[in-house]
Structure formats: structure tokens, C-alpha cells
């Protein structure tokens, strides 16, 4: 045999006669380009696409185990129609696709006639091909309410980035950085992009200093040069105090702030007026003033540097200004969009899959829900307010809901209220792989194909412009359908079939790719298209009201909020009765609520737990590796406890992501772990509309 540079797995698979298909993984939203090896209609091996700048050949355990979803016997196989009243555990009968399309079309017409098209909303999490639903429900039907999952995710980060830079999606150029400061961002433990994790580790090997500010000694904190164990919900105070040091000691980038920042002088005065000093922050954050001062100096004098956030500094009612303060550190040091900084993601010239003529488009007559609810700055729907619209008609009635690839009964706080919401809907459609907890509350359940069984062309999640392709690699499970066929079927019943003229996915693929310098055939061969990374775009003007980095936020002022970030206490403070603060972290072996029915991943990590500091454990009689009751004013759960040293005393950290399938379909997931979301009451960030998962106080005791 000739010498080859291919890895052993690839060689073995090819020797055994597998066909290699370029695709991408969609187990988590980072959609790593992959090579899928298929033999006899089954996936026999998968690896990262080695040519892709996105993941450079790598895949994580979740991606490697993802083949199982294409063979999972728990998958839905036919459309289902509810046969019993809402509020009871869902019972269903099988129906044909034709019946399902007709049922939905009839209900859509009824709702539009009675309440108007804005009374139908769509929400999704993993958003495979959601754009097709948008063409149907927004462009043709006329609803402005097409939403995703961000209020349960990184809403505060997106809002902060939009406010300051006019850009909704910051990425991280770790590879070129010399100083990285991560605020509540567990890059190496949560489901973050593989290439970013690799770049961070490689940067560290080249001397980049990593500082992690987090109440929890996370996987990333364990690899850091310095862990700053901050009290939960106080990141904003520390970041503002660091800004004060940098400005008072004239360590900021004067040329950059003079030319490219709006409101620098006012911000300097604001920090003084409010008394935001390291000594002030020490009392709030539990971090010594000397440490805050030292980190401020290090951050400002080491270049290139990056101050980055994801979810951890959010999840509180003060998360919006915490995010702004963390990004202002970047702005005043001139560390924006240059090599080694936060990067304003550049998009590929990817078009829509269908072209709806202007005269067929229906313009919404009402504001989208988030505006009507008073969240003008929210980048997405405040999910926790949706029950108000459905149950009370506030701000206007919502009577129809499409739930696409998401499970809000289990992913939103205050499960009781979310379940109540479903009782009040005229039409609840679940587009799902499984008969999930949410699907059980719906009127009709549509079995979707998994990413291994359908096509998708998407923006890649790399720094530069990138298009990634997912191809069907195996047969569909049962009678499941991809979104582009489901939408076409409903559209035909509505009389709009002409707008979805494709026969096969390549037809709409060509339409999407018409401005990308690569054909669909070439994309199928290569798996992705990428262009070079562009840097330093701030001088060219930003899409903010002033065209500059808005330290003074015109948007905030126009919406009636504070121009500069302030520190306010979070809403829920532990007390004598419930003395512990909840925080959350994830498992690297699972993606949110997606992977708990995968036996291979469950073999590695089959149960979640709550972490408690040894000081608190001793106080409340908790032994390591025993079951405890975690109780909030609202609900209680039984969960395994781990006694740790690496957690700020006074809080517990619940590893989130299990406790699914307990009453829904999911034979592997069923009965494993505990789900914590019903411990929380509804707390919505007043500016961004984000779910505040950490606004919750609890007590812990040994379980009976
Ligand atoms: S990081 Fe996400 S997209 Fe990439 S292989 Fe892992 S699960 Fe799949």
C-alpha cells in the first residue's frame, strides 16, 4: 500500500467501501463541515472536513455520536393529530401528510380571518431551514412574528453588541490575541465552536494570557492563567470599575476613542458621578480592588486583547448593562475588529431559497410582538412574555404557534405557565424529530427529517464569509419530511404553491447560491465556500445611529433607558429561607436539550447534578455524590449533588441539560437526571427581553 497522509479511520472506511459525502454537523448550532462515510445506507464513520477553516478537520464527541439520530427508534415517523382536549396528556392519531397540510391551512385561514395574520407566531431553536417557514408565514401569510430562541440564550450579548457596534453577532479571533478576558463564558466546556476552542488553546501555547471571570471554576477557568471567582450577577460592576482605572490612568486608546467612539467624555464623567471605583466594586463582586486594578492595567497594556461574553453575564435582570460594560472595555482600548479582538462577523452573499414577488408579499399591519411588548431593543422575542400574549391577549392576541425544532416547555423558565399557554392556542404545530414535552401539548405534530436526512445551505460560523452545505446522506426515517417539503405542502393548500417551485433541494440551492462564486455541484464536492477574513472595519463606519462605536447609546436613550451602562442589583437576592443563588453550567458531552436520547453520549454523561461549595455542603449536611432536594419558592427537584471547591460560596451551579423525556418520548433520556427550569419564576430582562435563568434563590437539603 502506498504511503498516505490520510488518518487511519478514513483509510479503513474507504477500504471497506464507504462513500464519502461532504456535509455539516448540526448537533449544535456551530455546524462544523464534515465528511460522512456511508455504506449500505448507514453512516459508518464521520470526521471533520480537513479543508474547512471552520473546524479544520475536527469534530467533538456530540458530532461523532450524531449518526444515532438517523436510526433512533424513538423518532417520529408519521404526522399526528391530537384526539383529546388540551390540558390532558396528549393523545394522537396518525394522519396522512395531505390531511396534516389541509388541517393547518384551514386553521391558518380561520385565524387570519378572525384575529389577523399577526396572531400566528413561529419560534425555533435549532433553526434548520427555518427560512422556508418565514417565506410562508411572514412573506405570504403576513405575520411579523418570526422568532428564534435567543432570549433563552445569548440575548444580552447580542443586544450589547448591537447597541455598541450595530452588529448582532460578535465572534472571537483568539488565534491572534495576547490577552483574553472571558466573562462567564465557558468556551471549552459549553457547546461553543470547535475552531474557536482550538484557536484559544493554540493562542495560549503561543503566550496569550487567559483570564476567566466566573463564579464557577469551569473547564475554561481550569485552563486559564487566572480565575476570578466573582459573585453571580456582578460582572457589570467589575467591568465598569476596570473602565474607570483605564480612563483615570490614561491607558485607553486616545486616537481610537476620539475618532471612532461616541460619548467617551460623557462616559468618563458618568463613571466618576456614579463612584464606580475598584473599591466600590470590591464590595459588590467579592474581588479585591487591587486585583481589579491590576487586571485593568494588564488588559489595557497588552495588545491585542479581547474582553468577551456569551451567556453567563446575562441571565440576570442587569445582564444588558453588564454586556455593554464588558464590550466598552474593548472599545476604549481600541480593541475592536482587529486581529486578536472580538470580530464583527462577516457574512457570505447567500440569498433566499425562493423569490417571492413583491405583489405577492403581504405587509404586516401590526408591530412585531417584541416591539408591541415594549422591548424595542430586543434582538428576538422575549419568550417569557409569549404566554401573556396567548393567555391574556397582551399586547395583542396570539392564537397560532409553530414550534420548530425547539422544546419551550422544557427550555423556558416557569414550565407551568408555558404549559398553560398551550391550552389557549387555536393552533399549535410542533415540527419535531421526537414526541417531545412540547409536542405533547400541540394540536398537530409533524415529523421532520434530521440533518443527516435533509439538505441545508447556511452561513458558516467562521470569522470570515463562509457558506456550508448539509446533504442528505441516509434515507429518511419513516414518513418524515424536511422543512422545505412541509412548507411547500402547506403553501399548496393555501393556494401559494407557485412560490415554492422546486422539485429537489438542488433547485432552491441554486437560487440561494446565485451570488456566491461557487455552483451547487462544486459545493457538493467541497462542502463549503469561504472567503478571506476582513479586519479593521470600524474606520469605515458602523451601522449604529452615529456610525461610531456607541459608548453613549442613542438607541437606549430613544427607548427611554440609560445612555451609559449602570450597575443595578439583580432582582432575586437569597435570604434566610432560601439562602443560595442558582447559577447554571453545561456539559461538553451534550448540547442543551438535544442529545439526551443518544445512548453513546448518555453512557459518558447520563445524569446531571448540582454543584455546591464544600463550605455550604458542610453547613447544610450535604455529602458528595448523594441525592439532594433543591427547593425554590416555586418548585423542588431531586438531583445528584457534587461537593466542589471551585464555586463561589453562597451559590449552587446546576449542570443543565438533562431531565428530559420524563413524560415524553425518549426511552434513553427517560428518568435520567433532573430538570431545573420550573424552579424559576418568570423574570425578563427589562431591556433585552432575555430569560433570567439565574434570578432564583434556593435551599438544599439531603433528599429523603
Ligand atoms: S461542535 Fe457542534 S457542530 Fe461541531 S461537531 Fe460538535 S456538535 Fe457538531
Can you give a write-up of this model?
The protein is α/β, with parallel strands linked by helices. It folds into three domains: 80-152 and 358-450 and 480-512, Rossmann fold (3-Layer(aba) Sandwich); 170-344, Dimethylsulfoxide Reductase, domain 2, CATH 3.40.228.10; 580-702, Barwin-like endoglucanases (Beta Barrel), CATH 2.40.40. Helix content is 29%, strand content 18%. α3 crosses α18 (483-494), α11 (278-285) crosses α12 (289-301) and α15 packs parallel to α17. Iron/sulfur cluster binds at residues 25, 27-28, 30-32, 59-60, 62-63, 194, 591.
Strand-residue fraction? Answer: 15-25%
Ligand roster: iron/sulfur cluster
Sketch the major β-sheet.
7 strands, mixed
Strand order of the largest sheet: 5-4-17-16-15-6-7
Helix content: 25-40%
- CATH topology-level fold name of the largest domain: Rossmann fold
Task: Report the principal-axis shape.
Answer: globular
Q: Gap between N and C termini, in Å?
A: 64 Å
CATH architecture of the largest domain: 3-Layer(aba) Sandwich
* Continuous helix count: 23
Mean pLDDT: 94
**Which spans have pLDDT < 50 for at least 5 consecutive residues?**
none
Q: Structurally, how many domains make up the residues?
A: 3
Number of strands: 27
The whole-angstrom Rg is 25 Å
Class by SSE composition? alpha/beta
Q: Give the CATH level 1 class of the largest domain.
A: Alpha Beta
